[in-house]
Model the fold of this input.
Amino acid sequence: MNPLVTPFCRIDPLEMIKDLPVRIDVLRLDLVDPIVSGNKWFKLKYYLDEAVVSGKTLLTFGGAYSNHIVATAAAAKMAGLKSIGIIRGERAPQLSPTLLQAQELGMRFFFQSRNDYREKILPDALLHEKHDLYSIPEGGYGTLGVRGASDILGQAQTEKYTHIISAVGTGTTLAGLAIAATPDQQVIGISVLKNNFSLNAEVDQWLPEDKKNAVTIIHDYHFGGYAKRTVELLQFMNDFYRQTAIPADFVYTGKAFFATMDLARKQFFKPGSRILLLHTGGLQGNRSLPKGTLIFG
Ligand SMILES: *Cc1c(COP(=O)(O)O)cnc(C)c1O
Done:
């Protein structure tokens, strides 16, 4: 049985923006499960349904600090399936905390050079083992991922919001949100990659015609690119935690939260707007920071 059943999603109001003429609430997807955190839970669930029926070994892909890798390892364990991770880059002498955790959850790893990884070449050592594999694309990208993400908004009272905002990597989550949004809602994605302008078409391919106008992707808050950071971003995350007790990560949610606050201050949103900001979970990236960088951990 697929253990990823409907979680309860809490909404926290942000009190810190009282001086602004908009209201921002945070949808706490980070609380759905301590390990299969956030949007990865939703993106995985329909893949897991299929995998459970097939009884095959789960195969997926990610980096050494990937939220998706650890989420897949945990989901596989809950479902009683074996899991294998193809990890980008050479094996480091010391496994990252993320990989150690995934390993404890039963995942086995094969490390691929960045080139082979990009080309999605499976290692010979894995092919020789002749597993029956059920492959989940990196990050849960794909139709089943979009379908899972389209269940997010239904887990809480979300119709009253004028804007839905999320961090964007592959765009899978954003597409699911747009599909589920009401015709009046604007869905805004904060791209965490630098100048990844193909995202707009990438997201549009999943959407019916009447939803394509509902989506805006903003490319101004990547802080240097994927998994890049600045002192300003880290300071913001600490301040945000001090004021709200909500932890963010510097790869995804930190950038989305920063962007939302900045846009609100710059009057991007009409007065009276009600904004639902997604906490998409996944704090794994923070484990790559030097100790003491963040006041939460
Ligand atoms: C993976 C991830 C995202 C990006 O989701 P996509 O569907 O790939 O756009 C956003 N936030 C967090 C915390 C993530 O782990």
